[in-house]
Amino acid sequence: MTTAVGGASTISEKTMMIHKDKLYAGYVAKLKEVGEKLKKLRDEIVIGTAPGGNVTYSDLRSLKDAENFVTNAVYLHEWYFDVISGNGDFGQAPELSKAISEKWGSVLNFIKYFSEGAMAARGWSVLAWNTKNGHIMQYNADAHNQGAVWGCIPIIVLDVYEHAYFIDFGADRKSYIEAYWRTFNWSAAEKMYLKVVGLTL
C-alpha cells in the first residue's frame, strides 16, 4: 500500500468533514443566496424597475455567472462524495467495467489514464456519459464552470483541488489519487452508469 506524507494511505475523516461541512455547505448556501437574488432581479427586470443585461457588466451578468459556478460546485461535489466510500472492487460494477474495458482495454488501463488526467487537471477529472455520441468519455475541468461539455452526465468525479487532499497528503496528489481508487465505490458508479446509459439526444 502506498503511503503518503505523514503516513496517510486513505482520505481522513477530518478532511472529509472539512470538505463536506465547510466547503460544500458553503457552496450550497451560496447557491440558495444566488437563486434568491436572481428571482428578485428577474421580477424587477420584468416590471421594469431594474436594468437588464449588459455584456461588459450588469447585475444580471454577474449573478448568472455565479449561478453557473456555484451550481456546478454543488453538483460536482455531490457526485464526488457519492463514489468516495467503497472498497475499490470494480467487480461490483460489471456493466460499467465492461464499457470501460471496451474503450480502454481494461479497468486498470482506464484507472491509469483517468489518474493521469487528474494529474493534469487543476480542478476536476470526470468520466461522463456523452448523450450526443452515446459513449463514456473522460474530461478535465480547471474550474467548476470551465471544461464541462454540454450533454454529458458525470459518472465518476474526482476532486483534485488541493483542499481535497492537502491535510492528508501534502502536495502529493498522486498518492491521494491512489487512495481515491482504493476506497472507490464502484457499486455507486455502476448505479449511475445504468441510470444514464442509453440516454441520447
Number of beta-strand segments: 3
Q: Describe the sheet with the most strands.
A: 3 strands, antiparallel
Cα-atom radius of gyration: 19 Å
Order of helices and strands: HHHHEEEHHH
CATH level 1 name of the largest domain = Alpha Beta
Count of alpha/pi helices: 7
Q: What percent of residues adopt helix (DSSP H or I)?
A: 40-55%
Strand content: 5-15%
Distance N terminus to C terminus? 43 Å
Identify the CATH architecture of the largest domain.
3-Layer(bab) Sandwich
Mean pLDDT across all residues, rounded? Answer: 94
What is the CATH homology-level superfamily of the largest domain?
A: Iron/manganese superoxide dismutase, C-terminal domain
Shape estimate? globular
Q: What structural class do helix, strand and pairing data support?
A: mainly alpha
Strand order of the largest sheet: 2-1-3
| CATH topology (level 3) name of the largest domain | minor pseudopilin epsh fold
* Low-pLDDT ranges: 1-7
Taken together, the total number of domains comes to 2
Describe this structure in words.
The protein is mainly alpha-helical and 201 residues long. It folds into two domains: 12-82; 90-196, minor pseudopilin epsh fold (3-Layer(bab) Sandwich). Helices cover 54% and strands 11% of the residues. It is built from seven helices and three strands. The chain has helices at residues 13-47, 59-82, 94-104, 107-120, 166-169, 173-182, 186-196; strands at residues 124-130, 135-141, 152-159. It has a three-stranded antiparallel beta sheet. Helix 1 (13-47) packs antiparallel against helix 2, helix 3 (94-104) crosses helix 7 and helix 4 runs antiparallel to helix 6.
